[in-house]
Specification:
- There is one protein chain.
- The protein has 170 residues and is of the alpha+beta class.
- The chain contains 3 helices and 6 strands.
- It has a domain of 56 residues: Nucleotide Exchange Factor Grpe, Chain A, domain 2 (Roll), CATH 2.30.22.
- Helix 2 packs antiparallel against helix 3.
- It starts with 19 loop residues before the first helix and ends with a strand.
């Protein structure tokens, strides 16, 4: 048998058989590199998420009261107008103006989720009411709110201020 030669006359080098273990190692290296790249992308993505969340939290802290401020500004305007006209207004007109201002304030508070707690004639609830005193009463059952000294307030079902009340006792 004669050896075949390429046109330039150089002998043909037989291909070295590629070992299965070398191919497996190369495949594992490629897989490790892909996993490393995925890891780096995931770390970068988490860092971006952390920074974005921190910016959003800071914005919420800075501007969280914006909705409340916008709702209360008309109340301030109404009070300012009332003060400006107080010198010449009769008491009936002043009282109507104060009631209108109070309605504006109630609407502003409702806009931001603040709800009034007026527990008159309801059972005493220590989680929402602060008992200032106990009075005997033949008209209502014991542990019932007889009188509200100061109304309480909730915001989205969370207590802002407990109602100060007088409670019936036996």
């Amino acid at each position: 048998m004669s050896e075949e030669r390429p046109p330039d006359g150089a002998p043909i080098q037989p291909e070295a058989p590629q070992d299965d273990s070398t191919a497996a190692i190369d495949g594992l290296r490629r897989e490790a590199e892909e996993n490393w790249n995925r890891y780096l992308r995931a770390v970068a993505e988490l860092e971006n998420l952390r920074k974005r969340s921190a910016r959003e939290i800071e914005g919420a802290r800075k501007f969280g009261a914006e909705r409340l401020a916008q709702a209360i500004l008309p109340v301030r305007d109404s009070i300012e107008a009332g003060i400006a006209t107080a010198q010449n207004a009769d008491p009936t007109t002043m009282l109507e103006g104060q009631r209108a201002t109070l309605r504006l304030l109630d609407q502003a508070l409702a806009t931001v989720g603040v709800r009034e707690i007026d527990p008159r004639c309801e059972p005493f609830d220590p989680t929402k009411h602060e008992a200032l005193s106990l009075l005997p009463s033949a008209d209502v059952e014991p542990n019932t709110v007889l009188e509200v000294i100061q109304k309480g307030y909730e915001i989205h079902d969370r207590l802002l201020r407990a109602a100060k009340v007088i409670v019936a006792r036996e």
